[in-house]
Amino acid sequence: MEEKLNKILEDGKKEISNSKDEQALLKLKSIYIGKDSEITKIMKNMKELSIEEKKIVGSLTNKIKNELEKCIKAKIGELSSNVISKKTFDHTLPVTDSKGSLSPVTIVANEVADVLKKMGFIIVSGPEMEDEYRNFEALNVSKDHPARDMQDTYWTDEAKVLRTHTSPVQVRSMEKYGAPLRIAAPGRCFRNEDLDASHENTFFQVEGMVIDKEVSISNLIYVMKNILKEIYKSDVEVRLRPGFFPFVEPGFELDIKCLICNGNGCSRCKNSGWIELCPCGMIHPEVLRMSGIDNTVYSGFAFGIGLTRMAMMKYKINDIRMLNSGDIRSLKQFGIE
Ligand code: PHE
User: Is the Cβ atom of 246 under 6 angstroms away from ligand 1?
Assistant: First the structure.
């Protein structure tokens, strides 16, 4: 009898300590010490035992019952404290009932990708830590090219760079797919900037590239205008100026009229009334050649839309630092939920 009782205690303890939730524990409680449990049955049949046996079995059953009860209580306490500590894990959050939302940049990136997909572009991506060749050389920016100064770069110990633009994805796509080609590559870029309302060391672009036979500047302008119309849901005023980038020829800067001040001049547009939004141009034949594309047959255009700027214009955000702050309250004030 004693052996049987000790076995019940041992099994019960094991099962209790392995149980995963309160419901399972309540079930064990009824199995081990409930009305129909083995222990209760033994207690009920005590009258058939001798006085000597009664003493031993009586005290043992009581001890076991109490011990199992104690174990169950302790386990319930342990499980519920786990739940509480999980729930309150991030006690620095300003609100507990908020659902959060996509960042304005992600929203705009998705919208641009949707427009481009409709125009037959495939969405591709490349690494944020890039090799020097694809970030610079393969884009016609040789080691001593003065254009490197425009992109103050983060270098890693392994002579890699945190990509300064999404343009290396042009190179990767040409290498991988050849021509004809129509790609869009949204992504994060990095430059060693001094931070202020319009400069961040981490920002987003979407690269676009089309390579085909007989591609023209008017194709480029059509694509750009189509994107802007879809994002801003109206015909925004644009202007095209010459712009220099070693990997395009001719190169342009496509500006939009500042949507924060309506072209009247504000701190965001440096009082010019215009925002540089989309550098672009016809792909330099040398860039095509370096990535193995026959530049006597194919030509193309490329653009690099500043997604961060685009989102700032769309949601009238006047300080870029808000975008990387991760503070959900900043989203709410722009009506993004
Ligand atoms: N990669 C360039 C930059 O970030 C922009 C660009 C992309 C210009 C494609 C022309 C064509 O400065």
Answer: no
The list of the chain residues with pLDDT below 50 reads none
302 lines ligand 1 (CB under 6 A): yes
Long-range contacts formed by 54-58: CB under 8 A, 24+ apart: 56/1, 56/2, 57/1, 57/2, 57/5
The amino acid occupying position 291 is S
pLDDT digits (tens, 9 = 90+) for 60-104: 888 888 888 888 888 888 877 776 556 566 767 776 666 677 889
Nearest-angstrom CA–CA distance, 12 and 10: 5
Residues constituting the chain: 337
Q: With contact defined as beta carbons under 8 Å apart, do 303 and 252 qualify?
A: no
Q: Which two tokens mark 246?
A: 């070693």
Assign domain 104-333 to a CATH class: alpha beta
DSSP string, 136-197: TGGGT--TT-GGGGGS---B-TTSEEE-SSSTHHHHHHHHHH-SSEEEEEEEEEE--PPPBT
Single-letter code of the amino acid located at 248: V
The rounded Å distance from CA 61 to ligand 1 centre is: 82
* Domains in the chain: boundaries: 2-86, 104-333
Instruction: Calculate how far, in angstroms, residue 259's C-alpha sits from the geometric centre of ligand 1.
Output: 22
What gap in Å lies between CA 75 and CA 70, rounded to an integer? 9
CB 281 less than 6 A from any atom of ligand 1 = yes
